[in-house]
Records
---
Amino acid sequence: MVLEQASLPEWISAISQLLLVLIFIALFTGANQRIQVYLWSRDIRSKLVILESFANDARRRAVEYMVSKGAKDAESLVSRLADFFVISPVDIEPVDIIRRLEHLVNLRSRRFKEEVARHMPEADEVSRSKAEVALEIASALSFIHKYVRHILLTGEKTRNWILIMQLQLIMPMILKIADTYRRALNDFLKGVPIGDSAGPMVALRLAGRGARWERIEEETVYTVADVEGRRVYIVKAEGPGSSVGRPGSATERLIEKLVAQGRKPRLLVTVDAALKLEGEETGSVADGVGAAIGDIGPEKIRFERIAVKYGIALRAVAIKMGLEEAILGMTEKIVKGVEKAVERVKDIIRGESKPGDIVVVVGVGNTVGVGQ
């Protein structure tokens, strides 16, 4: 007996039923999920290779820069400081936590400076500050690479597909941040002003040409200017090296000195770069109350405490920009924002003080490329 050949519709029906059975088996056994996790893991690993190349490139360039400035055993220094860490102080006992945190932050900063100075004895201060930034960027990129790898391996080890899925979803954002740090290294080593230099640049413009600056705190300077009859004390980090100084400590010391002389300031204005929301224009300027400073606590609280102690109005001016714009070379829009901020500060001084009053203005931010 000869079997008749099956028709095309019958073959399609049979294949469809087979596929449905396979899909059911895959859903029942979780095979589809394992395939998806495999694809996510492969995508993460491909991006992890890029992160590793960013970290290695930053370390290599840091070593090359230090060697070009006569550093001794730069490779060893970069390898050691790339993994340098700070353990946060105990926070379940809040008493004196700011002072403890400030001590640890300052100790870390001092340790970096001492190590760089020891390995680069013949380099000038500006070159050393650039080397410190190169080390910071290399350390940041190294941490990003290690942390992403840790999350991936933990997810695979525990078969936590939700953890892997979340990591895969945010990988484009992580890559963008890492790439921004990598590109920022060029601008820091060249010594050009970055977006975060907007605050110090406002201070420099407000002081005017020929101002005489004096050091008042570590890597922090001040000068005195006349703004429409007001005696304005202007504070900024010391440039043109890469430093944020200690604006809070410097301002506190300056105000205590002025009060002791019977010249209590009427107004304290802080100016800093601020992250804009998506849709906001780069270089736009806003003002408010409080201390405009992106500090984890020790410097910021000094502004607040000194203002409360003597009843000084604490005002803030912010120049808006994105994270990428903040750490890359200053753009034309931010330069225009600096000019707007200078005028906004003057408006605040006019409106909230009288001729003869004492005013303190602080330009907060990294002063790379912005001298005195």
---
Amino acid sequence: MTKAKMKLYGIPQLIEADVDPKGNIVNLNGQRFQTNELSVDVPISGTVYGTLLNYKGAFAALNEAMTKSPYHEPPKAPILYIKPVNTFSSCNMPIPLPSHTQALEIGAALGVVIGQKATRVSEEQALSYAAGYTVVNDVSIPHDSVYRPAVQYKARDGFCPIGPWIIDRSAVSNPDELGIRVYINNELKQENTTANLIRPVARLIADVTDFMTLHPGDVLLVGVPEKAPSAAAGDIVRIEIDCVGMLENTVVREQELVLGVAK
């Protein structure tokens, strides 16, 4: 079992728990639970910052386009975007599928949860600023444009499931060697590893805090691997990250959620 922090509905503060990331088991008050037996809430409280093109394969796929107008060369600094609070959702909650959309793009991402104020930190000290790690599904509507802010595609309600907990930093010996897998209806659809990051976790934290401050509770997503799989209405999506945990959600048509059919 590993130390983690999590949040339950009805309890305003984070609670400490012993968890088994492989089995998605939680020990609370001497009792063992599966996460789907608990009312798990979103375990983070700050801003979620996503990072584009930080996987080698994702970068290579757009390498030729980046040399053309309007940029003419690949980016030299991390490309960030925000997943606002309206996107936050918890483990086992439905992911809304907007009307006139056939499927959603599933973005499996390791989330680095910041534990102390981080400004211009060195790469050598960067990991000490992390409180722990969590699993994030950076959901988006498939789109081609990378030149305009993709707010309507990435920032819709419920488009950022997070959790089910924050695993303690000490439980992850090397965040740059974590396997990541996406299952849809229990079928493996994507497999990658953080060993393929262009900017390893410590360097990413250092590069981002060189121009902006990260605060306790903020989450920095290290990136989404190339060839993200798609999920349609009724699909059960499970993201697994070694040593961190597994995040499961079901895609449900938005109009069904509005009508209260799916809960």
---
Amino acid sequence: MDSILRKGLFLVTVTGALASFPVTASAADTDASGIMPSVGIEEVLNDCYTSQNDIEVEDYLVPTRKGEYLDMAFANVQSFLYIRSEPTKESEWVGKLYPDYAAKVIGPVGEWTKIQSGSVTGYVYSEYIIIGNNAEQKAQEMVQSSEAEVPEEAFTYAESKEEEEARLAQEAEEAAAKAAEEAQAKAGTGQAVVDYACQFIGNPYVWGGTSLTNGADCSGFVQSVYAHFGVSLPRTTWDMENVGTPVSYDQAIPGDIILYDGHVGIYMGDGQIVNAINSSRGIGILPATYTTILTVRRLI
């Protein structure tokens, strides 16, 4: 007998019985619907002995379990696929499936398919999902290529509208906290620039000069201070208007440079700048808003 005895039969019993009775297996009739008769092992063997028709014994066996992932679906999209509350494009969306996200098919497949993914149950447009044997194959490939200990962990599922809103809010909060940390770190570095620059308050202003001790003009002062920290700046205020990163005045932190029409200074914080003012006042401190601000630039 060439038939493969599948799950549900006792291999030893059948093999022994057939070896003892050298007869040809024969088939019992099925009804018009093709549904297999419900039989036990004894009836199978009895049919084998008494029927005049040849049969395949495997016809009586319990059918093999269907593919483990045949009831799955995968989003076949470039961006995302809405899961809607009703099978219409006008209905409210309740969740999203991103590329290759997994779902379980829980309703008939037509123009729309009812699915469940994560905590979301709803309808997706069938044109944009992979189902059936293709889904089974894709699932097997994902499981095989995954390092997850549990097969189900190889799949990613949808998030509801509420879950997405919560995630985005958390991401925004984390981004703001990170930005604040970076600003604080830069402010610490900028404060070092301010502290260094303030050492030269009272030294002379010299037109065209770049010496922090013997004299500098406004752009020469800023250029020389930043050179001490390894930052190379152009010589004139007009060229400095395009360096670094622009920020608004209300976002200015210590160490930013503030440019005016023909003048530049280093922001100290608290609304003040340290700068080479003029020949009568030398290097000193002015209100940051003493005149119209053209731009604020962040260098470090």
---
Amino acid sequence: MLKNLRNYLITGLIILLPLVVTIYIVTVIFSAVDGFLRPVIELVIGRSVYGLGFILTLAVILGVGIIGTNVLGKRLIEVGEKFLTKIPLVKNIYVTVQQIINALFLKNKTAFRKVVVIEYPRKGLYQLGFLTSDGVGEVQQKTDAEVVNVFVPTTPNPTSGKLVLVPHKEITYLDMTVEEGLKFIISGGTVVPKKNDINLLNSKD
């Protein structure tokens, strides 16, 4: 009975958490935009307008999206990102969150290329991770094995984790998608993809 209640509680949290986080983020953006622009616009037009906050928030989000899709906007975003990545603590948080968002929404263009399993931190123990890129530069030149970069996130907060350089031959690739892998990690292993995701591919695949 207690075990069933525990499972129901975890399942409920997994279902509600994305919704709650989404509502929270939208609410924060709405409050910030509404609190800043509403008094200015109402001062200009001389009266209060019902739904103005929602319209302003939507306009700001659309505006940022439009700016981000043109050449000049992309350059401005790149400059902003370079500035953020020079701040030690902010850099770690921003880059990791950006990778996760890319993994969820950009799919084929994701920074996380594949879901993999590695033996870490020692032989006989396995960790789920995300292949980010092949080892290049000095790291590859000064290691005997051909290595790849694997990001190993923590549970239940995948915005933190560590980078592990793993020999290519020691990587086991999974069939599950990056999104499924993230759900698996966030849920602590309780949300397993329905298909035969334990189908392991040849490590040379």
